[in-house]
Amino acid sequence: MTTLRQMRFLVALADTENFSRAAEICNVTQSTLSTGLKEMEARLGVKVAERSTHSVLMTSIGTTLAERAREILAKVTDFEAAAQAETSAGMTQLRLGVIPTVGPFLLPRALPGLRAAWPEMQIYLREELTESLLAGLTDGRLDLILIALPHDLPPQVETMLLFEDDYSLATPRAHPLANLSRVEGSDLAGRRLLLLERGHCLQKHALSSVPGVTLEEDTSFAATSLPTLVSMVEEGIGVTLLPNLAIDAGLTAGHDLHLSQLEGATPRRIVLAWRQSSAQTDIFRKFGEILLQSRAPSA
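-> structure tokens emitted (299 positions)
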């Protein structure tokens, strides 16, 4: 019989298309993961992936089975959570996924309140990009995720809006716009923005933030983190849009640059998301209320 462990191996491989990363996600050795998948293939009589020295390509049936495995694993997770919810201890551990442009700037302030509400709860934190977090949520690897919208969501995911997050323009001190406390989208026309590398939802959000204005990306440079972007602006390399959540949390403190509030921009929406079938909805909503209360006010 195909085991839940083998299903987890399959889903991890489908998500990463890399045996090493899949094994890391499953917390097993690469040989253990490979053996488990080969045993599953032998039992089912199909090949779930095409292997070569340098790459992995999921077969059509492998992709289909991985999607079915996601649904099964998520239902098993919720089955166990429903049983746990009936115990006196309630939820004792939470597997929380966050995107790197939100989690580090919101969670530290919220942790005292979360610990006070659930002193016995262990929170396991995973910082990943949005696509990976959504995959982890739908296959049961994660219980709850903290992400930014707009973004396409699977139909089985429920969200709770926490707050909207506006943008500020960060410029070097010598930049022509550095004497303005507020700027409009038209001020950015024709100017190229330093942005995070593709895969970060903030990269897409920033480019589409000003209705009616086409913002351009400086494709000669892409950062892996917001602190890197701040350092590049400080050195006079270019300008960027920063989310106010990160600024309020101290991202630009100690850096010699200028910040101007971007007027008329469409803010990104910070949300908590979980599976609709989860038995822990009440806990997740209380979790969200604590995050909202801990949100630093805009300057």
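The mean pLDDT is 89.
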